[in-house]
What we know:
- There is one protein chain.
- This protein has one helix spanning 211-218, and strands spanning 2-8, 13-19, 32-37, 42-44, 48-55, 63-68, 73-75, 82-84, 87-91, 98-103, 113-118, 122-125, 131-132, 137-143, 152-156, 159-164, 168-171, 180-186, 189-190, 194-196, 198-199.
- A hairpin with a 2-residue loop joins strand 18 and strand 19 (189-190).
- The chain folds into two domains: 31-119, Immunoglobulin-like (Sandwich); 121-200, Immunoglobulin-like (Sandwich), CATH 2.60.40.
- The strands form six sheets. It has a five-stranded mixed β-sheet with strand order 4-11-10-6-7, with no helix packed on it. Strands 15, 16, 18, 19 and 20 form a five-stranded antiparallel β-sheet that branches.
- By secondary structure, the chain is mostly beta strands.
- 4% of the residues lie in helices and 46% in strands.
- GO terms for molecular function: transmembrane signaling receptor activity.
- Pfam families: Ig_2.
Amino acid sequence: PSLCISLSTSLSFFSLCVSLRSLSLSVLSNQASLSVSPDRSQFFEYGSVSLSCEVQGNSAGWRVVRNSERGILSECNTDWGKQQGSSCNVLLIPSDSGVYWCESGSGEHSNAVNITVHVGAVILESPALPVTERDSVTLRCRYQETTSDLTAVFYKDGTFIRTETTGEMTIPAVSKSDEGLYKCYNSKGDSPESWMTVTAPSPVLSISLPRRLCSLLVGSPYL
Length: 223
């Protein structure tokens, strides 16, 4: 197979074809990822979450599975969750806390996501899925009951970061150093800890042409 690039001017039409056999792509067939909606790792009891397997290629045979905090391995639509199309919708109770991922019939699996169901008064809304370096991320201290005092104290890896009267802490451009365990605290109580993962931006695919061919193109009187 070949990749063809066509160039045209008012005087001529030029077509360049490059063999794809010499290109190496880092895309795996049937690569799957678990999406989480809403994208957060902590929920109050009786909250809901939708988990979906997004698969490149043939999605047949992929399903959402979990390993609960009690060490029970099971899949959606057994004793938890309701399968609706490609999504698994879960009405959460404490026993739903655990690690979730997508798995195929042949044993392939996706990224894993930790979900915590908290019966206390405060949770931390932080991304369950990895965030990309230089993205803006907002962490929110959320309260089960209405409160007029939104002031929250934020911690990372057990160390005080800062106090926010709005109950929200924004990191304008995250970096790898922002990766870690976060929690928040206010007058209503404290949240569980959640890990935030920071990844590098995806590399951009580029094609390098032989120098001689580039010289021919640059030197063409029709370009």
